[in-house]
Automatic annotation (TrEMBL), chains A, B:
InterPro entries: GAF-like_dom_sf, HTH_MetabolicPath_Reg, Tscrpt_reg_IclR_C, Tscrpt_reg_IclR_N, WH-like_DNA-bd_sf, WH_DNA-bd_sf
Lineage: Bacteria, Bacillati, Actinomycetota, Actinomycetes, Kineosporiales
Tagged with keyword Repeat: no
Keyword set, alphabetical order: DNA-binding, Transcription, Transcription regulation
Domain IclR-ED: 80-259
Domain of life: Bacteria
Provenance organism: Kineococcus halophytocola
Pfam families in the record: HTH_IclR, IclR_C
Name of the molecule in the record: IclR family transcriptional regulator
Stored PROSITE patterns: HTH_ICLR, ICLR_ED
All residue ranges annotated as the HTH iclR-type domain in the record: 18-79
Protein backbone atom coordinates (compact mmCIF):
# COMPACT_ATOMS: atom_id res chain seq x y z
CA UNK A 1 0.00 0.00 0.00
CA UNK A 2 3.00 2.36 0.38
CA UNK A 3 3.32 4.93 -2.39
CA UNK A 4 6.26 4.52 -4.76
CA UNK A 5 9.25 6.35 -3.37
CA UNK A 6 7.78 6.67 0.11
CA UNK A 7 10.13 5.62 2.93
CA UNK A 8 9.17 2.14 4.04
CA UNK A 9 9.82 0.91 7.55
CA UNK A 10 9.03 -2.62 8.62
CA UNK A 11 7.28 -3.40 11.84
CA UNK A 12 3.91 -3.90 13.41
CA UNK A 13 2.94 -0.25 13.10
CA UNK A 14 1.90 1.06 9.67
CA UNK A 15 4.91 2.88 8.27
CA UNK A 16 3.26 6.20 7.43
CA UNK A 17 0.06 8.15 7.71
CA UNK A 18 -1.80 7.82 4.45
CA UNK A 19 -1.99 4.02 4.18
CA UNK A 20 -3.61 4.08 7.62
CA UNK A 21 -6.36 6.28 6.23
CA UNK A 22 -6.72 3.92 3.28
CA UNK A 23 -7.05 1.02 5.71
CA UNK A 24 -9.69 2.84 7.72
CA UNK A 25 -11.59 3.55 4.50
CA UNK A 26 -11.24 -0.11 3.53
CA UNK A 27 -13.11 -0.94 6.72
CA UNK A 28 -15.99 1.29 5.63
CA UNK A 29 -15.91 -0.26 2.14
CA UNK A 30 -16.21 -3.74 3.68
CA UNK A 31 -19.93 -3.15 4.22
CA UNK A 32 -22.49 -3.63 1.49
CA UNK A 33 -26.20 -4.29 1.17
CA UNK A 34 -25.74 -7.98 1.98
CA UNK A 35 -23.26 -7.21 4.77
CA UNK A 36 -24.72 -4.42 6.87
CA UNK A 37 -23.46 -6.06 10.08
CA UNK A 38 -20.01 -7.57 10.36
CA UNK A 39 -18.18 -9.24 13.21
CA UNK A 40 -14.52 -8.28 13.63
CA UNK A 41 -13.22 -11.36 11.83
CA UNK A 42 -15.42 -10.85 8.76
CA UNK A 43 -14.72 -7.14 8.81
CA UNK A 44 -10.95 -7.66 8.82
CA UNK A 45 -11.16 -10.32 6.08
CA UNK A 46 -13.37 -8.24 3.81
CA UNK A 47 -11.14 -5.19 4.32
CA UNK A 48 -8.01 -7.30 3.70
CA UNK A 49 -6.47 -6.31 7.02
CA UNK A 50 -4.92 -8.23 9.90
CA UNK A 51 -7.43 -8.67 12.72
CA UNK A 52 -5.38 -6.62 15.20
CA UNK A 53 -5.08 -3.70 12.80
CA UNK A 54 -8.78 -3.89 11.89
CA UNK A 55 -9.70 -3.88 15.60
CA UNK A 56 -7.56 -0.84 16.31
CA UNK A 57 -8.87 1.17 13.36
CA UNK A 58 -12.48 0.07 13.86
CA UNK A 59 -12.14 1.30 17.44
CA UNK A 60 -11.22 4.80 16.23
CA UNK A 61 -14.07 4.80 13.69
CA UNK A 62 -16.45 3.56 16.38
CA UNK A 63 -15.25 6.24 18.79
CA UNK A 64 -16.01 8.93 16.21
CA UNK A 65 -19.36 7.42 15.23
CA UNK A 66 -18.53 6.25 11.69
CA UNK A 67 -19.15 2.71 12.94
CA UNK A 68 -21.60 1.43 15.53
CA UNK A 69 -21.55 -1.84 17.47
CA UNK A 70 -24.53 -3.91 18.48
CA UNK A 71 -24.93 -5.91 21.68
CA UNK A 72 -23.23 -8.89 20.00
CA UNK A 73 -20.20 -6.77 19.16
CA UNK A 74 -20.91 -6.67 15.41
CA UNK A 75 -20.03 -3.50 13.57
CA UNK A 76 -22.28 -1.52 11.25
CA UNK A 77 -22.12 1.87 9.53
CA UNK A 78 -22.89 4.57 12.10
CA UNK A 79 -25.34 7.44 12.14
CA UNK A 80 -22.51 9.98 12.20
CA UNK A 81 -21.75 9.11 8.56
CA UNK A 82 -25.39 9.79 7.70
CA UNK A 83 -24.97 13.24 9.26
CA UNK A 84 -21.78 13.93 7.32
CA UNK A 85 -23.15 12.51 4.07
CA UNK A 86 -26.11 14.89 4.43
CA UNK A 87 -23.61 17.67 3.64
CA UNK A 88 -22.66 16.33 0.21
CA UNK A 89 -23.69 19.19 -2.11
CA UNK A 90 -24.24 16.79 -4.97
CA UNK A 91 -26.69 14.24 -3.68
CA UNK A 92 -28.13 15.24 -0.37
CA UNK A 93 -28.66 18.92 -1.09
CA UNK A 94 -30.26 17.92 -4.36
CA UNK A 95 -32.46 15.29 -2.80
CA UNK A 96 -33.77 17.71 -0.18
CA UNK A 97 -34.94 20.01 -2.94
CA UNK A 98 -36.22 17.11 -5.03
CA UNK A 99 -38.08 15.18 -2.34
CA UNK A 100 -41.36 17.16 -2.37
CA UNK A 101 -41.57 16.82 -6.16
CA UNK A 102 -40.74 13.12 -5.93
CA UNK A 103 -43.36 12.75 -3.21
CA UNK A 104 -46.02 14.36 -5.45
CA UNK A 105 -45.09 12.07 -8.35
CA UNK A 106 -45.12 9.01 -6.09
CA UNK A 107 -48.59 9.95 -4.83
CA UNK A 108 -49.79 10.24 -8.44
CA UNK A 109 -48.29 7.08 -9.92
CA UNK A 110 -48.19 4.69 -6.93
CA UNK A 111 -44.96 3.11 -8.18
CA UNK A 112 -41.25 4.01 -8.05
CA UNK A 113 -39.75 7.48 -8.35
CA UNK A 114 -35.95 7.66 -8.63
CA UNK A 115 -33.39 10.44 -8.42
CA UNK A 116 -30.03 9.59 -10.01
CA UNK A 117 -26.77 11.48 -10.53
CA UNK A 118 -23.79 10.47 -12.63
CA UNK A 119 -20.73 9.38 -10.69
CA UNK A 120 -18.01 8.67 -13.23
CA UNK A 121 -19.21 5.94 -15.56
CA UNK A 122 -22.20 4.84 -13.47
CA UNK A 123 -25.38 6.37 -12.11
CA UNK A 124 -25.73 6.67 -8.35
CA UNK A 125 -29.25 6.23 -7.00
CA UNK A 126 -29.57 9.19 -4.62
CA UNK A 127 -33.09 8.38 -3.58
CA UNK A 128 -36.16 6.36 -4.37
CA UNK A 129 -39.75 6.78 -3.18
CA UNK A 130 -41.81 3.68 -3.77
CA UNK A 131 -45.47 3.03 -3.19
CA UNK A 132 -46.45 0.17 -0.88
CA UNK A 133 -47.92 -1.61 -3.87
CA UNK A 134 -45.01 -0.96 -6.25
CA UNK A 135 -43.13 -3.64 -8.18
CA UNK A 136 -40.14 -5.14 -6.36
CA UNK A 137 -37.43 -2.48 -6.83
CA UNK A 138 -34.47 -3.21 -9.11
CA UNK A 139 -32.21 -0.69 -7.37
CA UNK A 140 -31.89 0.72 -3.87
CA UNK A 141 -30.57 4.10 -2.66
CA UNK A 142 -26.77 4.06 -2.73
CA UNK A 143 -26.76 1.50 -5.58
CA UNK A 144 -24.86 2.04 -8.81
CA UNK A 145 -26.86 1.82 -12.05
CA UNK A 146 -25.54 1.14 -15.54
CA UNK A 147 -25.90 4.35 -17.59
CA UNK A 148 -26.69 2.76 -20.94
CA UNK A 149 -29.46 0.39 -19.80
CA UNK A 150 -31.56 2.37 -17.33
CA UNK A 151 -33.92 5.25 -18.08
CA UNK A 152 -32.25 7.70 -15.71
CA UNK A 153 -28.82 6.51 -16.84
CA UNK A 154 -29.69 7.15 -20.50
CA UNK A 155 -30.72 10.73 -19.67
CA UNK A 156 -27.43 11.30 -17.81
CA UNK A 157 -25.44 9.69 -20.62
CA UNK A 158 -27.23 11.68 -23.33
CA UNK A 159 -26.20 14.91 -21.57
CA UNK A 160 -22.68 13.86 -20.54
CA UNK A 161 -19.62 15.42 -22.21
CA UNK A 162 -19.22 14.20 -25.81
CA UNK A 163 -15.84 12.62 -25.18
CA UNK A 164 -17.32 10.56 -22.35
CA UNK A 165 -20.23 9.45 -24.55
CA UNK A 166 -17.84 8.39 -27.29
CA UNK A 167 -15.86 6.27 -24.82
CA UNK A 168 -19.04 4.56 -23.58
CA UNK A 169 -20.24 3.90 -27.14
CA UNK A 170 -16.85 2.39 -28.00
CA UNK A 171 -16.97 -0.02 -25.05
CA UNK A 172 -18.84 -3.26 -24.39
CA UNK A 173 -22.54 -2.47 -24.20
CA UNK A 174 -24.66 -5.06 -22.46
CA UNK A 175 -28.29 -4.66 -21.50
CA UNK A 176 -28.35 -5.22 -17.72
CA UNK A 177 -29.38 -7.42 -16.02
CA UNK A 178 -29.96 -9.81 -18.96
CA UNK A 179 -26.50 -9.05 -20.44
CA UNK A 180 -27.83 -8.85 -24.02
CA UNK A 181 -25.36 -7.04 -26.34
CA UNK A 182 -26.55 -3.58 -27.42
CA UNK A 183 -25.76 -1.93 -30.74
CA UNK A 184 -23.68 1.26 -30.47
CA UNK A 185 -25.51 2.70 -33.48
CA UNK A 186 -28.90 2.12 -31.91
CA UNK A 187 -27.70 3.58 -28.61
CA UNK A 188 -26.30 6.67 -30.39
CA UNK A 189 -29.69 7.19 -32.03
CA UNK A 190 -31.47 6.72 -28.69
CA UNK A 191 -29.24 9.32 -27.04
CA UNK A 192 -29.92 11.83 -29.83
CA UNK A 193 -33.68 11.27 -29.42
CA UNK A 194 -33.41 11.82 -25.65
CA UNK A 195 -31.56 15.10 -26.19
CA UNK A 196 -34.19 16.19 -28.73
CA UNK A 197 -37.28 15.14 -26.76
CA UNK A 198 -35.91 15.90 -23.26
CA UNK A 199 -37.34 12.60 -22.05
CA UNK A 200 -36.24 8.96 -22.14
CA UNK A 201 -38.68 6.08 -22.42
CA UNK A 202 -37.19 2.66 -21.84
CA UNK A 203 -39.14 -0.61 -21.99
CA UNK A 204 -37.83 -3.69 -20.25
CA UNK A 205 -39.12 -7.24 -20.19
CA UNK A 206 -36.96 -8.43 -17.34
CA UNK A 207 -37.71 -9.17 -14.51
CA UNK A 208 -41.25 -8.17 -15.53
CA UNK A 209 -42.58 -5.99 -18.38
CA UNK A 210 -42.06 -2.43 -17.22
CA UNK A 211 -41.53 1.07 -18.54
CA UNK A 212 -39.12 3.67 -17.24
CA UNK A 213 -39.67 7.31 -18.12
CA UNK A 214 -36.88 9.72 -17.20
CA UNK A 215 -36.24 13.45 -17.56
CA UNK A 216 -33.22 15.69 -16.90
CA UNK A 217 -32.80 18.00 -13.89
CA UNK A 218 -30.97 21.05 -15.15
CA UNK A 219 -29.03 23.59 -13.13
CA UNK A 220 -28.54 27.25 -13.91
CA UNK A 221 -26.27 27.40 -16.94
CA UNK A 222 -27.92 24.39 -18.54
CA UNK A 223 -25.86 21.51 -17.12
CA UNK A 224 -27.81 18.33 -16.45
CA UNK A 225 -27.04 17.50 -12.81
CA UNK A 226 -29.46 14.63 -12.25
CA UNK A 227 -32.19 12.52 -13.78
CA UNK A 228 -35.63 11.93 -12.36
CA UNK A 229 -37.34 8.73 -13.39
CA UNK A 230 -40.42 6.66 -12.74
CA UNK A 231 -40.74 2.91 -13.14
CA UNK A 232 -44.20 1.45 -13.75
CA UNK A 233 -45.48 -1.97 -14.88
CA UNK A 234 -46.11 -2.12 -18.64
CA UNK A 235 -49.86 -2.66 -18.93
CA UNK A 236 -50.84 0.37 -16.84
CA UNK A 237 -48.91 2.96 -18.78
CA UNK A 238 -49.85 5.97 -20.81
CA UNK A 239 -46.25 6.97 -21.57
CA UNK A 240 -47.18 10.38 -22.98
CA UNK A 241 -49.03 11.38 -19.83
CA UNK A 242 -46.27 9.87 -17.68
CA UNK A 243 -43.63 11.75 -19.69
CA UNK A 244 -45.51 14.95 -19.01
CA UNK A 245 -45.68 14.27 -15.29
CA UNK A 246 -41.98 13.36 -14.99
CA UNK A 247 -40.87 16.30 -17.12
CA UNK A 248 -43.00 18.69 -15.06
CA UNK A 249 -41.57 17.37 -11.78
CA UNK A 250 -38.00 17.50 -13.16
CA UNK A 251 -38.60 21.10 -14.25
CA UNK A 252 -39.90 21.90 -10.77
CA UNK A 253 -36.70 20.56 -9.23
CA UNK A 254 -34.62 22.49 -11.76
CA UNK A 255 -36.50 25.66 -10.84
CA UNK A 256 -35.89 25.33 -7.08
CA UNK A 257 -32.25 24.38 -7.79
CA UNK A 258 -32.06 27.67 -9.64
CA UNK A 259 -33.58 29.53 -6.68
CA UNK A 260 -31.03 27.93 -4.33
CA UNK A 261 -28.05 28.22 -6.66
CA UNK B 1 -3.68 11.20 21.64
CA UNK B 2 -1.29 8.19 21.93
CA UNK B 3 -2.66 5.31 23.92
CA UNK B 4 -1.05 4.76 27.33
CA UNK B 5 1.87 2.41 26.95
CA UNK B 6 2.03 2.74 23.17
CA UNK B 7 5.52 3.34 21.81
CA UNK B 8 5.93 6.98 20.90
CA UNK B 9 8.31 8.13 18.19
CA UNK B 10 8.96 11.77 17.40
CA UNK B 11 9.31 13.13 13.91
CA UNK B 12 7.45 14.69 11.02
CA UNK B 13 5.35 11.61 10.44
CA UNK B 14 2.50 10.98 12.85
CA UNK B 15 3.90 8.50 15.36
CA UNK B 16 1.20 5.86 15.02
CA UNK B 17 -1.85 4.88 13.08
CA UNK B 18 -4.86 5.89 15.09
CA UNK B 19 -4.26 9.65 15.38
CA UNK B 20 -4.00 9.76 11.60
CA UNK B 21 -7.47 8.29 11.36
CA UNK B 22 -8.70 10.86 13.89
CA UNK B 23 -7.18 13.60 11.76
CA UNK B 24 -8.82 12.28 8.63
CA UNK B 25 -12.15 12.17 10.47
CA UNK B 26 -11.53 15.73 11.70
CA UNK B 27 -11.40 16.77 8.04
CA UNK B 28 -14.85 15.26 7.48
CA UNK B 29 -16.13 16.96 10.65
CA UNK B 30 -14.90 20.33 9.36
CA UNK B 31 -17.92 20.53 7.05
CA UNK B 32 -21.30 21.70 8.21
CA UNK B 33 -24.48 23.16 6.74
CA UNK B 34 -22.89 26.62 6.46
CA UNK B 35 -19.61 25.18 5.18
CA UNK B 36 -20.43 22.64 2.48
CA UNK B 37 -17.46 23.80 0.39
CA UNK B 38 -14.06 24.51 1.90
CA UNK B 39 -10.76 25.59 0.41
CA UNK B 40 -7.68 23.84 1.75
CA UNK B 41 -6.79 26.66 4.15
CA UNK B 42 -10.26 26.81 5.72
CA UNK B 43 -10.43 23.03 5.79
CA UNK B 44 -7.12 22.75 7.65
CA UNK B 45 -8.07 25.53 10.10
CA UNK B 46 -11.49 24.10 10.87
CA UNK B 47 -9.98 20.64 11.35
CA UNK B 48 -7.20 22.04 13.53
CA UNK B 49 -4.50 20.56 11.32
CA UNK B 50 -1.35 21.93 9.68
CA UNK B 51 -2.03 22.73 6.03
CA UNK B 52 0.47 20.15 4.75
CA UNK B 53 -1.05 17.39 6.82
CA UNK B 54 -4.59 18.43 5.82
CA UNK B 55 -3.57 18.40 2.14
CA UNK B 56 -2.06 14.92 2.40
CA UNK B 57 -5.04 13.42 4.21
CA UNK B 58 -7.62 15.24 2.07
CA UNK B 59 -5.87 13.77 -0.95
CA UNK B 60 -6.42 10.23 0.36
CA UNK B 61 -10.08 10.98 1.18
CA UNK B 62 -10.51 12.54 -2.26
CA UNK B 63 -8.91 9.54 -3.94
CA UNK B 64 -11.39 7.22 -2.19
CA UNK B 65 -14.38 9.47 -2.88
CA UNK B 66 -15.14 10.63 0.66
CA UNK B 67 -14.30 14.15 -0.52
CA UNK B 68 -14.85 15.79 -3.89
CA UNK B 69 -13.16 18.86 -5.36
CA UNK B 70 -14.76 21.46 -7.59
CA UNK B 71 -13.14 23.33 -10.46
CA UNK B 72 -11.87 25.95 -7.99
CA UNK B 73 -10.14 23.30 -5.90
CA UNK B 74 -12.58 23.56 -3.00
CA UNK B 75 -13.41 20.36 -1.14
CA UNK B 76 -16.86 19.05 -0.32
CA UNK B 77 -18.29 15.80 1.06
CA UNK B 78 -18.29 13.19 -1.69
CA UNK B 79 -20.96 10.92 -3.09
CA UNK B 80 -19.08 7.83 -1.91
CA UNK B 81 -20.00 8.72 1.68
CA UNK B 82 -23.65 8.89 0.64
CA UNK B 83 -23.29 5.36 -0.72
CA UNK B 84 -21.66 4.10 2.46
CA UNK B 85 -24.09 5.96 4.73
CA UNK B 86 -26.94 4.26 2.85
CA UNK B 87 -25.79 1.06 4.58
CA UNK B 88 -26.35 2.34 8.14
CA UNK B 89 -28.96 -0.10 9.50
CA UNK B 90 -30.27 2.52 11.88
CA UNK B 91 -31.17 5.45 9.71
CA UNK B 92 -31.03 4.58 6.06
CA UNK B 93 -32.60 1.14 6.27
CA UNK B 94 -35.30 2.63 8.42
CA UNK B 95 -35.90 5.59 6.12
CA UNK B 96 -36.26 3.37 3.06
CA UNK B 97 -39.06 1.51 4.81
CA UNK B 98 -40.54 4.72 6.20
CA UNK B 99 -40.45 6.86 3.06
CA UNK B 100 -43.67 5.61 1.41
CA UNK B 101 -45.59 6.21 4.65
CA UNK B 102 -43.98 9.63 5.04
CA UNK B 103 -44.86 10.40 1.44
CA UNK B 104 -48.52 9.48 2.05
CA UNK B 105 -48.64 11.68 5.16
CA UNK B 106 -46.96 14.56 3.34
CA UNK B 107 -49.51 14.31 0.52
CA UNK B 108 -52.32 14.46 3.10
CA UNK B 109 -51.08 17.31 5.30
CA UNK B 110 -49.06 19.45 2.85
CA UNK B 111 -46.58 20.39 5.56
CA UNK B 112 -43.52 18.74 7.18
CA UNK B 113 -43.12 15.05 7.97
CA UNK B 114 -40.04 14.10 10.01
CA UNK B 115 -38.35 10.83 10.90
CA UNK B 116 -36.06 11.04 13.94
CA UNK B 117 -33.92 8.53 15.85
CA UNK B 118 -32.16 9.00 19.17
CA UNK B 119 -28.39 9.32 18.97
CA UNK B 120 -27.12 9.58 22.55
CA UNK B 121 -28.68 12.64 24.16
CA UNK B 122 -30.02 14.21 20.97
CA UNK B 123 -32.40 13.32 18.19
CA UNK B 124 -30.99 12.90 14.70
CA UNK B 125 -33.25 13.99 11.84
CA UNK B 126 -33.02 11.03 9.45
CA UNK B 127 -35.34 12.52 6.90
CA UNK B 128 -37.91 15.16 6.24
CA UNK B 129 -40.50 15.46 3.46
CA UNK B 130 -41.90 18.95 3.18
CA UNK B 131 -44.60 20.31 0.96
CA UNK B 132 -43.75 23.18 -1.39
CA UNK B 133 -46.04 25.41 0.62
CA UNK B 134 -44.85 24.27 4.06
CA UNK B 135 -43.59 26.62 6.80
CA UNK B 136 -39.86 27.35 6.73
CA UNK B 137 -38.32 24.20 8.27
CA UNK B 138 -36.70 24.40 11.72
CA UNK B 139 -34.49 21.37 11.13
CA UNK B 140 -32.85 19.74 8.13
CA UNK B 141 -31.86 16.11 7.51
CA UNK B 142 -28.65 15.36 9.42
CA UNK B 143 -29.46 18.01 12.05
CA UNK B 144 -29.49 17.26 15.77
CA UNK B 145 -32.68 18.06 17.65
CA UNK B 146 -33.08 18.64 21.39
CA UNK B 147 -35.03 15.68 22.83
CA UNK B 148 -36.97 17.59 25.48
CA UNK B 149 -38.29 20.40 23.31
CA UNK B 150 -39.32 18.79 20.03
CA UNK B 151 -42.32 16.52 19.41
CA UNK B 152 -40.27 13.65 17.98
CA UNK B 153 -37.63 14.16 20.69
CA UNK B 154 -40.23 13.89 23.44
CA UNK B 155 -41.48 10.59 22.02
CA UNK B 156 -37.91 9.24 21.93
CA UNK B 157 -37.19 10.54 25.44
CA UNK B 158 -40.44 9.12 26.84
CA UNK B 159 -39.41 5.65 25.61
CA UNK B 160 -35.69 5.88 26.45
CA UNK B 161 -34.19 3.81 29.29
CA UNK B 162 -35.31 5.11 32.71
CA UNK B 163 -31.79 5.93 33.86
CA UNK B 164 -31.28 8.09 30.77
CA UNK B 165 -34.58 9.90 31.37
CA UNK B 166 -33.61 10.59 35.00
CA UNK B 167 -30.30 12.11 33.89
CA UNK B 168 -32.07 14.36 31.37
CA UNK B 169 -34.64 15.46 33.95
CA UNK B 170 -31.85 16.26 36.42
CA UNK B 171 -30.05 18.48 33.89
CA UNK B 172 -30.64 22.01 32.60
CA UNK B 173 -33.87 22.01 30.62
CA UNK B 174 -34.31 24.88 28.22
CA UNK B 175 -37.04 25.20 25.62
CA UNK B 176 -35.17 25.56 22.31
CA UNK B 177 -34.77 27.85 20.46
CA UNK B 178 -36.19 30.44 22.89
CA UNK B 179 -34.12 29.07 25.82
CA UNK B 180 -37.00 29.33 28.29
CA UNK B 181 -36.34 27.16 31.39
CA UNK B 182 -38.61 24.08 31.58
CA UNK B 183 -39.86 22.49 34.79
CA UNK B 184 -38.62 18.94 35.36
CA UNK B 185 -41.90 18.09 37.07
CA UNK B 186 -43.93 19.28 34.10
CA UNK B 187 -41.66 17.41 31.70
CA UNK B 188 -41.95 14.20 33.75
CA UNK B 189 -45.73 14.51 33.55
CA UNK B 190 -45.56 15.15 29.79
CA UNK B 191 -43.42 12.04 29.26
CA UNK B 192 -45.84 9.89 31.26
CA UNK B 193 -48.74 11.20 29.15
CA UNK B 194 -46.84 10.41 25.93
CA UNK B 195 -46.22 6.84 27.11
CA UNK B 196 -49.89 6.46 28.02
CA UNK B 197 -51.37 8.01 24.88
CA UNK B 198 -48.68 6.82 22.42
CA UNK B 199 -48.65 10.26 20.85
CA UNK B 200 -46.98 13.60 21.66
CA UNK B 201 -48.59 16.95 20.90
CA UNK B 202 -46.32 19.94 21.30
CA UNK B 203 -47.37 23.53 20.67
CA UNK B 204 -44.79 26.18 19.94
CA UNK B 205 -45.12 29.91 19.48
CA UNK B 206 -41.67 30.46 18.07
CA UNK B 207 -40.81 31.22 15.28
CA UNK B 208 -44.55 31.03 14.42
CA UNK B 209 -47.49 29.34 16.17
CA UNK B 210 -47.24 25.69 15.19
CA UNK B 211 -48.13 22.24 16.41
CA UNK B 212 -46.01 19.11 16.28
CA UNK B 213 -47.67 15.72 16.58
CA UNK B 214 -45.35 12.73 16.97
CA UNK B 215 -45.76 8.98 17.40
CA UNK B 216 -43.34 6.12 18.12
CA UNK B 217 -42.02 3.62 15.56
CA UNK B 218 -41.71 0.31 17.37
CA UNK B 219 -39.61 -2.69 16.39
CA UNK B 220 -40.33 -6.31 17.12
CA UNK B 221 -39.85 -6.77 20.86
CA UNK B 222 -41.41 -3.40 21.64
CA UNK B 223 -38.37 -1.09 21.53
CA UNK B 224 -39.05 2.38 20.16
CA UNK B 225 -36.49 2.84 17.38
CA UNK B 226 -37.68 6.13 15.89
CA UNK B 227 -40.31 8.83 16.06
CA UNK B 228 -42.45 10.05 13.20
CA UNK B 229 -43.73 13.60 13.47
CA UNK B 230 -45.62 16.23 11.54
CA UNK B 231 -45.28 19.98 11.95
CA UNK B 232 -48.22 22.17 10.92
CA UNK B 233 -49.14 25.83 11.48
CA UNK B 234 -51.43 26.31 14.48
CA UNK B 235 -54.67 27.63 12.98
CA UNK B 236 -55.13 24.76 10.52
CA UNK B 237 -54.96 21.94 13.02
CA UNK B 238 -57.37 19.30 14.19
CA UNK B 239 -54.84 17.60 16.51
CA UNK B 240 -57.03 14.56 17.12
CA UNK B 241 -57.33 13.80 13.41
CA UNK B 242 -53.64 14.58 12.92
CA UNK B 243 -52.72 12.30 15.84
CA UNK B 244 -54.69 9.52 14.19
CA UNK B 245 -52.91 10.03 10.85
CA UNK B 246 -49.42 10.13 12.41
CA UNK B 247 -50.10 7.13 14.64
CA UNK B 248 -51.43 5.14 11.69
CA UNK B 249 -48.37 5.96 9.57
CA UNK B 250 -46.01 5.15 12.47
CA UNK B 251 -47.79 1.80 12.95
CA UNK B 252 -47.43 1.13 9.23
CA UNK B 253 -43.67 1.69 9.47
CA UNK B 254 -43.51 -0.51 12.58
CA UNK B 255 -45.34 -3.25 10.69
CA UNK B 256 -42.96 -3.27 7.71
CA UNK B 257 -39.99 -3.07 10.12
CA UNK B 258 -41.39 -6.22 11.64
CA UNK B 259 -41.68 -7.89 8.22
CA UNK B 260 -38.07 -6.97 7.46
CA UNK B 261 -36.70 -7.75 10.93
Amino acid sequence: MAEPGAPVTRGKRPPKGEPVVDRALALLAAFDRDHRQLGLLDLSRRAGLPKSSAARLADRLHHWGALERDERGRYSIGLRLLEVAALAPRGQGLRELALPFMSDLAAAIHQHVLLVVRDGDVGLLIDRISSHRALAPLYNPGDRLPLHSTGAGLVLLAHAPEQFQRAVLAGDLLQEPERIPLSATALRRTLAAIRRERVAVLRRTHPVPLVTVAAPVVERGGDVVAALSVVVPEPTVDTRRLGGAVTTAARGISRVLDDHG
